[in-house]
Amino acid sequence: MIEHPEVDLVTVGAGWTAGIAAQQLCEAGWEVVSLEKGRAQWTWPDFAHNHDELRYTVRHDLLHDIASESWTWRPNRTSPSLPMRQYGAFHPGENVGGAGVHWSAVMWRFLPSDFEWLTHHTERYGADALPEGHSNQDWPVSYDDLEPHFTQFEYDTGMSGVAGNLAGVVRAGGNPFEGPRSRPYPLPPLAVTRSGQKFGEACEALGYTPFVQPSSILSEGYTDMSGQPRAGCVYCGFCTRYGCHVDAKASALTAHIPMALDTGRYEIRTRCYATSVEVDSTGRATGVRYIGPDGREHIQRARTVMLAGFTMTNVRMLLLSTSAAHPDGIGNRRGQVGRNATHQIWQNPTTGLFPNERLNSFMGNTSTSHAIYDFASDVFDHSGLGFLGGGQIFADAGERLPIGTVADVPVEEGDNGRGWGQGYKERMRLWDSYLPILVQAESPAYHANRFDLDPNFDDALGRPLLRMTFDWTDNERRMYAFLAERASEIMDVLSPQAREETLELEDYNIEDYQSTHIQGGAIAGTSPEDSVTNRYGQVWDAPNVFVTGAALFPQNPGANPTATVNAMMYLTLEAMKDQYLDDPGELMS
Amino acid sequence: MEDPAGAAGEADRTPLPMVEPSAAASPVSRRSFLGFGGALAAAAALPGCTPLQRDTPAAPNGPNGHTGHASDDPAAGVPQPGLNVPERTEVGRFLNPDQLALVTAVVARLIPGDEDDPGAVEAGAVDYIDRLLATHESYPQRTYVKGPFARAYEGDTEPEPENDIIWVQADELPRYGWQSGRTPREIYRMGLARLEALSQARHGSSFTDLADDDQDALLEAVEDAEDDDVEQIFDPLRSDTFFDLVLDHTTQGFLADPLYGGNRDLVGWEYIGFPGAQRAYSPQEMIDPEFSRPSQSLAQLATLHGDHGDADALGSIRRRHPNGPID
């Protein structure tokens, strides 16, 4: 066992929240070490020449190494759990910068009502209207608490979009349903592809309010918080699952981590696999135990520990860090760890074929498209609909590369529809002539859905994998059916020559990609009786342990989470600089 | 008679086109699989320091290695011609001549073509497949291969517990995705032999001697996995597991970057009109209905140099930080 001298903070992971925390805390004088199980990577040379669909999209080269550690899933308690052997329903990352390097960079602020889900929906619809078996809670922070931090993050790294609500005034071109912003976006929105354009026009024709998807991909040159100018997007089409070759896509690598390294007080140790949080006899954390690249066991001592990995990594770390003081894992004295596991509805309800048009959909990125918020969250009246919740409707209008898309050309009448043969070969030519509309929507929390440790499957070290028990309920099926109908109506306006539709929510499964927005398991709240952490991610049972990321989210509001993940990190760091630095280990108020 | 290792796979869900069930044989994943760090460290590690190790072989960013990583070598980000570009050969690296001939016949039906209108065979998809099988003992993408493995049961009554088996109701098994313990090598070995056996059983001839229509009919039966004789002959392999894998590989061999052995002379990309490895499109091009650009491969993509000094318009991109980790 190799012991490393105590530092102020050790983080598990070197991604978004670790980078943000290191930058702010190192600049405040702290010494920080991040333990990253993956490897070092930088824009140059590692992303300079990565335009290879087989390697990064099909073979998932940048993703977390699922061979050595996976996750198991079962739909409910009476079903068996099996591991996700190949990607898969979600795509966690690894390496310096984490999933924030290969992410889609879609940035939404959750709506004000999302943060008070329980109060809001009970008041509006009554307790009887809430989904049966739900365990949704209000967040311990409000939109107003986070607003300055959303804004700060947007300007720190650069973000592209049009403000739909500026200080309470609704403005054209943006999301009219969003919460009020104190400042406009720093940059104008991204450009759109032909399919993004078509989708926007169809939405307008129906009286909706489409707007270009907001993004952490720069639309033009921008000097970010590091003082360094970065180039705008060049729409190469190799975006989600790829590091950005020109640094247009923000990640922890573009500003926060370099700035932390500049202080000389930050060290990232790669190929170091954290195995548990070490505690003393009182249950206070004393550091993190890990396996080094040499295969030997190490402990990095620290006065504060931060779990900054993927949602499931963080939850598993809590559960595996058992001791006399925390027999069921850190934060778990009242059985709260693992509760409120959520994912996200993410499906393609309708696809239209336009054989005489090329849509240029292999260019661009996820956000070179329009979206509508007209049926998201609770912006529309749910009375009598039989479900709660909503989502965005948008076009899959960019970065559509061939290997993954040639098989999904809608079949026209007379075509035998076989996915091979001469008919398929001819159909393949229409690979850039079809437009899928997508729905991304809420995942309420239920008592039945949770994380725990699997009894049968383990990792390369012989330690149990994290198990997710999760399934959809009728609420989500009805929600999706409603949103799918709306999407289908939009497709009607476009009048495709052929179309394929999936108007029912498919059974939850771990094979089809469903977004990487797995959330919950270490939720933040106002009381230790119904949460694992306070509003700052500080574990009630062990106040010098912080959880970061979407494990804190009580339920999934249905929009991409990174903006809220990072705003909460900013909120926490503001409080730490105010209250914690002088008194590490005390619960903040 | 069920083969326990195989039966698990045989109840399996077949992979989607984007999922290719193979584990890398690269040193990186072997190390990971053995246990983080493993015993493969080249340098003695100073406490707390990441040893200076190179775990990619001679071809950085090549198809046989994983992600290129921080390096001071300006060529590190560029695939090296000669190392990655495959040589055309009639001799298989993995498949024997009979297997090669059979794969060629199958691939020719999956994406047909000829000299004037190239299909997958003309594009070198057979080379792609053979190279893949030769390179990867297990899977090209990292795959969790630890047991126990799933086995399906029909009806409502779960069979008696057995060691190393997780029983799953047959209708539910597809929800769990790929659950096979079989590698692509095994799937091809078993599948090709069984396809040939099926051809003999139904037609009294080798698959390669059949007319196109008869070949297609056999492939449809293998894909659909409904007929009793198909099930019996293919047992313990699911015939659709074999079919879907070959189809996935054929598509990849037609449309992947040519450095993997297929898409020769970019015929696949030219056919569908995909410009390939491009660094940039303009907003005007994104909405141009007449957009067209010749295809280019990754090897043809102009290098992005980080060290052009004052003249480098992209000098702002992040390079490895002097205080950053070196792998």
Break the fold down into its secondary structure elements and pairings.
The complex is a heterodimer of chains A (589) and B (327).
Chain A (H helix, E strand, L loop, with lengths): L1 E11 L3 H12 L4 E5 L6 H4 L6 H6 L12 E4 L7 E2 L15 H4 L14 H9 L17 H15 L7 E2 L2 E2 L23 H12 L5 E2 L9 E2 L5 E2 L25 H7 L3 E5 L2 E7 L5 E7 L5 E11 L3 H10 L24 E9 L16 E3 L18 E5 L26 H7 L5 E8 L8 E9 L5 E6 L4 H21 L3 E4 L36 E2 L2 E6 L14 H19 L9
Parallel strand pairs in A: 1-2, 1-13, 2-10, 3-19, 13-22
Antiparallel strand pairs in A: 3-4, 5-6, 7-15, 8-9, 11-12, 12-13, 14-17, 14-20, 15-16, 16-17, 18-19, 21-22
Helix pairs in contact in A: 1-8, 1-12, 6-12, 7-11
Chain B lengths: L3 H7 L16 H8 L62 H14 L14 H11 L13 E5 L11 E5 L14 H20 L8 H13 L3 H7 L4 H17 L11 H6 L10 H4 L41
Parallel strand pairs in B: 1-2
Point out poorly predicted stretches of chain B: 1-89, 308-312
Number of strands of chain B: 2
* Mean pLDDT value of chain A: 97
Strand content of chain A: 15-25%
Number of strands of chain A: 22
Taken in chain order, the helices and strands of chain B follow as HHHHEEHHHHHH
* Strand proportion of chain B: under 5%
* Count of discrete alpha- or pi-helical segments spanning 4 or more residues of chain B: 10
Euclidean distance between termini CA atoms of chain A: 37 Å
Kindly, what is the distance between the CA atoms of the first and last residues of chain B, rounded to a whole number of angstroms? 49 Å
Q: Determine the fraction of residues in helical runs of chain B and give it as a percent range.
A: 25-40%
Largest interface: A-B, 120 and 120 residues
Q: What is the structural class of chain B?
A: mainly alpha
**Structural class from helices and strands of chain A?**
alpha+beta
Q: Main β-sheet of chain B: number of strands, strand sense, barrel status?
A: 2 strands, parallel
What's the overall average pLDDT of chain B, rounded?
76
